[in-house]
Design a protein that fits this description.
This protein has 144 residues and is mainly α. It has five helices and no strands. The two termini are 13 Å apart.
């Protein structure tokens, strides 16, 4: 479970890094853009695009989604090993994680677009299901 928590932590950090580009460096690029000459705007656009691709696509989305998907797979495996956890919830978590590992390639190839779209529905639904099970199990002392 420690490995799963490590992946969840890495997912949170990488996604926050990806999102923090907007109120920090991109904000400053936008302020500079307002008074920049046409030549300087070309440079600012290149910086914006490079940071957007690196911090947004690679760090925030790719690394974040990889880590998040690994957390789901490992959580599903943990549920599978738990004596009283429903097997369907375990398989749902593993399936959601595997689909996330496939769907994270959507910025590389459009071939996985349908998988990424399906995962956008499965992911929050599984998180709700997992959370509900955790609450119910904790109230009946089934987690220990």
């Amino acid at each position: 479970m420690r490995i799963g928590v490590s992946f969840a932590f890495m997912a949170a950090v990488s996604m926050v890094l990806g999102l923090m580009r907007w109120p920090s460096v991109h904000w400053e690029l936008a302020r500079t853009w307002a008074t920049a000459s046409e030549d300087n705007r070309l440079v600012l656009a290149a910086i914006f695009d490079g940071l957007n691709r690196y911090l947004g696509n690679f760090i925030g989305e790719f690394l974040g989604e990889f880590s998040f998907s690994m957390f789901f797979v490992l959580s599903g495996v943990g549920l599978w090993r738990h004596q009283r956890a429903p097997r369907w919830l375990s398989w749902w978590g593993i399936t959601t994680g595997v689909l996330g590992l496939i769907g994270m390639w959507r910025n590389v190839t459009p071939a996985v677009g349908a998988v990424a779209a399906a995962n956008n529905y499965l992911l929050p639904a599984w998180m709700i299901g997992f959370g509900v099970w955790l609450v119910i199990a904790s109230r009946s002392s089934e987690i220990a």
